[in-house]
Request: fold
Amino acid sequence: MGSQPYEPIVRFKDVVLAFDEKVILKNLSFEIYPREIVTIAGPSGSGKSTILKLITGLLKPTSGEVENHAEIIGMAFQQSALFNSMTIWENVGLALKETTKLSKEEINKRVIEALDMVGLKETINMYPDELSGGMKKRVSIARALALRPELMLYDEPSTGLDPGTSYKLEQDIAELRKKIEVTSIVVTHDIETIKNVSDRVLIIDKGHVVWQGSLQDFLTDNSPYPQSFRNRLPLEECN
Reply:
């Protein structure tokens, strides 16, 4: 996107993350603005999922600054992480029950609203084992939405899904911005996910941002990194 009229909701400034001698992120800097959908792409091991852990506070940077101005964060994990012994209602309502003082009636209202947003209200009394992989991922999104987050984080949302199911999930991600004006950060290595949800794209490699731009930039720029992703080619073949 062009010039931004808002203050960033997330800002990384010269972030370094290292474990002993291994440097995961090196002088990483970027900004995410309210109501954007930003995809963070990059090869395996480039530090993409680590960025989400820093945003949520699960990890602290070795140096540099991570600013997060969202009071409530929703997280949709790569694996849906549902409890098979609980109904879908119980799974979606669990965080509300454990972390808020809401009445059962208000929790029920939020659970129904969240499942309705992802088109799965009819599953409310079912168990995870009765759902497909794509439905489980959408339930995990509903679980996060029930908290009414300002910021949604998605870790490889299309992994393990067939193309049609992935597309439906990507539509859900895009629609949520219209419905509740949530900001979304999507970590992915999937070219179709990038095409279907992005306002902006950040490409991470060797622990820092090596390319960033709008979706249109990503689709037309012939520099090595976007080319490598678009054409599924090794980077050295895109020079």
Summary: The longest strand covers residues 22-32. Strands lie at 10-19, 22-32, 37-41, 63-68, 73-76, 151-155, 183-187, 200-205, 208-214. The domain at 72-149 is CATH 3.40.50.300 (Rossmann fold). The first helix runs from residue 48 to 56.
